[in-house]
């Protein structure tokens, strides 16, 4: 009988048509910081007791962290006379075979068990044993018991860590270094995801800078700012708002820009050690990338760690405010002219007037430096990047390009390696156009459209398994310069008499 014969009903699924496109997450901060007294890892422990007095043994994992919670210990009665005390290890299970006398009664004391465990190489590689009290009491047989309480280091060096609660994480960040202060600055603005990379604080500023810049160690592990590139593989999130508050200079920022370009992220950077607006303008000339905004000066405010007023990093607050804007308004809004929380002053005098272009703020903005002002609260003032290409002069132009590129690309994994029928191409184009219509309705873009270009998609190109889909879009310009044209006229006096009569 023919193999395709069937007497009944069969269903063949045809999964064609457009797919919904989800916008990539944008309010994810990538923070590189120091924290010399950050919380350490906690070793797992186990107190194994018996009914006999002073017969306890405490086991402590040799390696701190959650891996110690998988270690188990048991005491076994050999069930025979004149047995000797012996320790064996299988994986992470430690078995103590207790000694007995000529009548088969257990004779091993806590002290003897601890000595035996510490003397067995495989067991001592897992735990350290210590008798409780005098250790003279005879122990009793018991089943497996797990070590518990092991906790990993919350911020291991040069390792991206996902912080979902920046406020709670401050307790593990310690009191020194930049991590706790940076988290506090972010929390003042918003609750968002933060990818933290902690680096070691060096013996001097130069060594700390080297640690911040990082690289790749002998084991292939990325360190310093380069560790942000490992975040997506390790944590499943991609940091898109990057900064190294209080530790960035031209060298650090230059390296961070390279990371941002790989991640399609945006960098907020200070103007280094600039003490005047002229120095800040000159400092900005170090960069020509669209992925960075230079900010000068810093904020001031109360520091609870020192119970005094001190300088507060503008970069850390820019990162938090950027995430807040993404959540509340969208990635099409620039950082400028939004109130900043948690600050009470500006570290340098910056003259600003809403109507006068010849001010300190106007000078800085004209040199693509974002500054700080005080008007109904403290605010960032300026939307310019360091781009040499006028197409990406504004912060939101760069971020719009990044978000659209990643969203459209990542949304079409499903289409790769599918048979390239015309229907597939149509589905891709229609799906992109549907997303553009959604963004247009939400005011994220002015408009955008995708299309299939027959001229570039020649038979030879298609035969090679390649497909070109074109699309264009218009980002939303920020209203940077509002020109109000005021005129004086006497034309409203022409009918003055009639107005009097009608009054």
From TrEMBL:
Record domain Tail sheath protein subtilisin-like: where: 220-386
Superkingdom to which the source organism belongs: Bacteria
Domain Tail sheath protein C-terminal: 387-489
Pfam families assigned: Phage_sheath_1 (PF04984), Phage_sheath_1C (PF17482)
Family: Belongs to the myoviridae tail sheath protein family.
Full protein name: Tail sheath protein
Species of origin: Halomonas halophila
């Amino acid at each position: 009988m023919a193999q395709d014969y069937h007497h009944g009903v069969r269903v063949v699924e045809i999964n064609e048509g457009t797919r919904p496109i989800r916008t990539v997450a944008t309010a994810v901060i990538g923070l590189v910081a120091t924290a010399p007294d950050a919380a350490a890892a906690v070793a797992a422990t186990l107190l194994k007791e018996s009914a006999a007095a002073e017969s306890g043994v405490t086991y402590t994992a040799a390696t701190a962290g959650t891996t110690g919670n998988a270690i188990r210990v048991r005491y076994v009665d050999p069930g025979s006379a004149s047995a000797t005390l012996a320790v064996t290890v299988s994986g992470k299970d430690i078995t103590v075979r207790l000694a007995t006398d000529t009548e088969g009664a257990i004779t091993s004391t806590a002290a003897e068990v601890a000595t035996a465990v510490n003397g067995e190489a495989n067991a001592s590689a897992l735990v350290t044993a210590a008798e409780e009290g005098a250790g003279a009491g005879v122990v009793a047989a018991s089943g497996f018991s797990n070590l518990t309480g092991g906790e990993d280091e919350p911020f291991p060096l040069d390792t991206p860590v996902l912080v979902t609660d920046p406020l709670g994480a401050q307790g593990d960040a310690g009191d020194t270094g930049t991590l706790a202060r940076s988290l506090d600055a972010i929390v003042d603005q918003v609750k968002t995801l933060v990818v933290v990379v902690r680096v070691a604080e060096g013996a001097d500023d130069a060594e700390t800078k080297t640690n911040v810049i990082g690289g790749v160690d002998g084991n292939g592990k990325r360190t310093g700012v380069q560790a942000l590139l490992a975040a997506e593989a390790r944590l499943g999130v991609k940091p898109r708002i990057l900064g190294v508050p209080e530790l960035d200079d031209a060298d650090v920022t230059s390296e961070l820009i390279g990371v941002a370009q790989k991640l399609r992220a945006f960098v907020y950077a200070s103007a280094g050690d600039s003490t005047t607006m002229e120095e800040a303008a000159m400092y900005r000339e170090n960069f020509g990338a669209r992925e960075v905004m230079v900010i000068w000066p810093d904020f001031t405010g109360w520091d609870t760690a020192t119970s005094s007023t001190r300088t507060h990093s503008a970069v850390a607050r820019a990162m938090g405010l950027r995430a807040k804007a993404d959540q509340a308004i969208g990635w099409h809004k620039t950082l400028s002219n939004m109130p900043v929380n948690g600050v009470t002053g500006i570290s340098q005098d910056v003259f600003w007037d809403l109507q006068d272009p010849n001010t300190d703020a106007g000078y800085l903005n004209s040199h693509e430096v974002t500054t700080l002002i005080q008007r109904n609260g403290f605010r960032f003032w300026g939307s310019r990047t360091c781009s040499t290409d006028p197409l990406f002069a504004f912060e939101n132009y760069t971020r719009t390009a990044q978000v659209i590129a990643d969203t459209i690309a990542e949304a079409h994994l499903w289409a790769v390696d599918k048979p390239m029928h015309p229907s597939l191409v149509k589905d891709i184009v229609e799906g992109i156009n549907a997303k553009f219509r959604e963004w247009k309705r939400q005011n994220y873009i002015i408009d955008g459209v995708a299309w299939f270009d027959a001229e570039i998609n020649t038979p030879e190109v298609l035969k090679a398994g390649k497909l070109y889909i074109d699309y264009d879009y218009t980002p939303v310009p920020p209203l940077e310069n509002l020109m109000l044209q005021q005129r004086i006229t006497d034309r409203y006096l022409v009918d003055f008499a009639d107005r009097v009569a009608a009054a």
